[in-house]
Inverse folding.
């Protein structure tokens, strides 16, 4: 009887979510949201908790989905979609804040729109956003958050597409378990 090979593992090592650009962006979104709500909303306002929870959910569900991916592609896809939905909810909160206060939401016609988009795409946002936050007023910080959320939801849509593609190529855990079991049986003969 042949000994079981250590390379027969069918569970992939996954969970490298901290290296994902979208996860890093959602960390910044969480930080911006926390500072924004602390500076510009009343502490008794229910919106504070909702915005912080939505930003946290966006970040945490990416992490949880990534960790669950080694045993459930379905859970990974669902949690990635929950992250996207949470960020969509947060987007509406920032848009509402600007609208009801008569502040501008920057669109393609606004002179600062393109610079904000480029800044949010750059690597420098990772290092200098923390120093920049105290200098921004509520309109600037709200538009920063909106831009980051739009970029993160775009990346999450692409990530979900990639997760679906990986499922089609490699199947789910049950298929992988069956293939591993069959390979094990064939190696024992």
């Amino acid at each position: 009887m042949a000994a079981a090979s250590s390379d027969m593992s069918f569970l992939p090592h996954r969970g490298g979510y901290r290296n994902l650009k979208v996860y890093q962006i959602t960390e910044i979104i969480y930080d911006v949201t926390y500072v924004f709500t602390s500076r510009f909303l009343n502490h008794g306002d229910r919106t504070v908790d909702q915005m912080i929870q939505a930003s946290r959910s966006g970040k945490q569900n990416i992490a949880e989905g990534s960790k669950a991916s080694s045993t459930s592609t379905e859970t990974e896809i669902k949690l990635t979609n929950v992250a996207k939905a949470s960020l969509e909810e947060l987007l509406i909160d920032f848009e509402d804040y600007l609208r009801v206060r008569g502040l501008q939401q920057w669109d393609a016609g606004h002179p600062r729109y393109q610079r904000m988009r480029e800044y949010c795409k750059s690597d420098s946002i990772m290092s200098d956003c923390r120093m920049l936050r105290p200098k921004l007023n509520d309109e600037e910080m709200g538009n920063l958050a909106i831009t980051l959320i739009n970029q993160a939801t775009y990346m999450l849509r692409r990530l979900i597409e990639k997760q679906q593609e990986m499922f089609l190529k490699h199947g789910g855990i049950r298929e992988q378990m069956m293939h591993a079991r069959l390979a094990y049986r064939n190696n024992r003969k």
